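Supplementary material to the annual report.
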Amino acid sequence: MNRTISRAGLAAVVAAAVIAGAWARSGSGTVTAQAVLTGLLLGGVYALVAMGLTLIFGVLDIVNFAHGAFMTLGMYATALLASSAGLNPYLTLLVSVPLLFGVGYVVQRHMVSRTMGGSLAAQLLLTLGIAMLLENSLLLAFSGDTRTVPVSFDTPLRVLGAVADLSRVLAFVGAMSLAGAVWLLLTRTRLGTAIRAVAANPEGASLVGLDVRRLHALTFAAGTACAGAAGTLVTPLVTVEPTAGELFNIIGFVVVVLGGLGSVPGAVAGGLIIGLTEQLGGLYLPGQSPLLVVFGVFVLVLLWRPQGLFGRPA
Amino acid sequence: MRLKSCIAIGTFLALTVTACGGSAPGGGAPDAADASGTIKIGSIHPLTGALAFDGQQMSKAVKLAAEEINNAGGIKSLGGAKLEILGADSQGKPEVGQSEAQRLTQAGAVALVGPYQSAVAAQVATVAERNKVPFVIDVASADDILKQGYTYTFRLQPSSDTLGRYGARYLKELADRTGQKVTKVAYLHEQTDYGTSTFKSFSDEAAKLGLEVGPQITYDALKASDLTTELTKVKAAGVDALAVTGYYRDGLLTAKAIASVQPEVKIVLGVSHGAFSSPVFPRDGGAVAEGIYDSNFNYDATKPESKAVLDAFQAKHGEELRFIPFTSYECVRLIAAALEKAASRDPVKIREALAGISFETVLAFDGPVEFDESGQNKNATPVVLQVQDGKVVPVHPAAKAVAEPRPAAE
Amino acid sequence: MTRRLIVLAVIGVALAPLPLLLPAAQEAVAVRALLFAMMAVAWNLMSGFGGLFSFGHAAYFGLGAYTTALLTIELGLSPWIGMLAGMAVAAAFGALTGYLAVRYRLKGAYFALATFAFAEMLRLAALNSELVGGAVGLTLPVTGEQGWWTLRFDVGDPAYFWVALLLMLGSVATVIVLLNSRAGLNLLAVREDETAAAAAGVAVVRHKIMAIGVSAALTAVAGGFYSVYYLFVSPDLAFGASVSIQAILPAVIGGVGTVWGPLIGAAVLAPLSDMAATLVRTPPEFLAFLQGRSGLDVIMYAVLLIVVVLAMPRGLYGRFARRPR
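Predicted assembly:
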């Protein structure tokens, strides 16, 4: 725990230096404040996506390429319910989360579980296949038309000269609440302890009588449910289309590796760092894709500290 | 080992041969010379993929045009021969566009229409050139396609250089018409060639008009999920007007960010923007779309002929014909006029007719369609549209407008 | 080795008359199959035989495509020279990034993600670089001297097929010869047990980098041919994630770590996408709802991929042609 706090302190110092640099570079306090605020809010969304991914990666040791597609599924559930039944998009969480939990459970039980302990390639390709199947089934069913789900009560909020739409703030708050819930689940409940035991040592967990197969399925389902929640929360911010989740999937991996496998605080910190990197990187290198900076950070972390900021060396 | 090898060869060969031979019945000898049958025109559009929304309507518009020409007696100089549209889906992918263009020419198409994306256009143009079949680009923005020295490729829509220059000119005129003082303009654009080249032409022209352009702010259209920071830069610069070039999805983000940041500009003008003059923009954007201008090519809304086309499309498909598919519709009429003039089914003769044509269009251009050396329609110009009460209406120049420009509410 | 080379020669001879037999539209499908095969053969060398799972072969493919296109457009050089240069560039890039990844002991998923990140960085760099045409990409000249030196022929000329066939045979032959060399045997030893191989005196890092370099060079040939055949390259077509997937799919479906698997996978996949396109264009009565829809081809790939991974992990060739071990 102390390690975590000292790392967070270090991160805060680095962040402060980067922000000061960006201020000097852009020459405007408001622009910098806006970049920081937008970066934090975006980072919250990234953290939310990474949360499910890090659970699955950390416990099942699977690089889940279908995570973005699961998120898209959540977006479509929200968009369809909001436009056809006129539901408040945030209420559709009650549908998207259980739906994706169920989908995740079935997918793990009937497909992913058969590759457990198999080659890495098999797992990676299986999730890739599932992603392609989901994305293109959505394309076949709903065509490539884009959909938007406006929030009727959306309004800009002002902080220090910077503005943020209420819908973005809600997504951020949702992400942080979910992170708290997942963290509590993992650290304060019997189920969480069992999941952590499975992650640390599947054979050992099996020997002390834990049902590893069931726990794997539950973890995968919980991770997928996080993707569903993320899908719903970002729906008011983005245009919904069959490939909408892809971008988040890629950034999700970056965040997971940055934060450390299976680490919930790592996912949160990683998400915020990537969000800020993207926005402030835009101030440092105008005209370049912010993703270039993000991937640069990613490669550096992979080479220099593959266990991530919050992970323990293997 | 021997068994293995034999099976390997066997499967490989059997699969290749049966699968290749067994799928499409296509191919065969070109029957363009068939003098009695229909005249085939190939239509290549993104019926699937990210741009399917427009691509599907482009394909419908092409078919509607052919139907109307056939009902009016077909191509008279060819004994009333009827047009037949051969449709193809580019999927928005250049290599698919290329192979489909190839398939259509082999199936006897004497002209090609399409394709919406510049990358696909570059591909189809090579096929057209190599097969000596005229290709009329309805919409594709990159000017590079016509700089290859092709002789079989023509483009109906204005060049991106024209669009950028007119953007600056119209911005100045709009300010004058609405009685607002505009001297400093910020420019926000997506960072690829489309945005950059439009920006360059815009700022060249703006300099001549005494407008100061800056700051130039760019973003990655594919990855952007929030443009608030970009708009804050606009606000911090304290400019009078904002010019924007981008695609649909990021256009919505721009409009949302304008509404929340409130950059206090008098005019927001899209320069051939992918969202701001789309009829679905007010639906998706709601209140944030209101009052935004776009300088873009369009049909001439003051002409009764345009209304007739819109009505016919509405009656047939139950949806509103948008300006991009309208351009595809006009391409078929243009090809029909060239066929009429050439009095021949020979693609080479049709090309000659197109190269020398002067075609009265219902698009809001600055004169009839006439092509220059490179194949660009030299009279193609944009008009200014504005979102007013949830509808996109042409407001400038006055001769082609159906409403007055509305200054932004202070 | 000799027997495998003979089999390869028989395949070559048997396929050579194909473009004379097939209708022109199908020749394009056959060329696409050969392109798939080239990429998969190369991927298979690094990831199947070398055990280094790459999710970023688009990097090498794109470098080959862009190098060939640039040299042809700017200097008017023959695409053959362009392809050679592309091989060198891709091999150098592969060796450098490979060295970093191997040196810092990236394994499994981390290695795959690193290759992916390198390909994405190249894509973003190309997207923002004026030199290579930015987002629009590069168009190769259509007109000009035709022939085997310029690799420019009339559309649908069988020569395109023969060039692709030649390149594909060359790639497979390279892999066969390499596998039977001392270096190839060492590579297999490294894949099976790195520690044991190192203990036996095999230079682990050097062999891994060799596999990456050769694989990158062979992929670059496919990229070079792509730009010559389609006369066009753009950042997404060259460096996009879908290119990496295209290199993986035929190998996995045919059989990872087998010499013939990638060829079988390619021969299955390329016609499949064409069949899906035909089906959607003119569907039979009972599938009328598919008219004009899209996504079907990828759904078919995806289902095939899932079935292969779950039911026959050693691929079609491994499942049907190999005697069970």
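Chain C touches chain A through 40 residues (CB under 8 Å).
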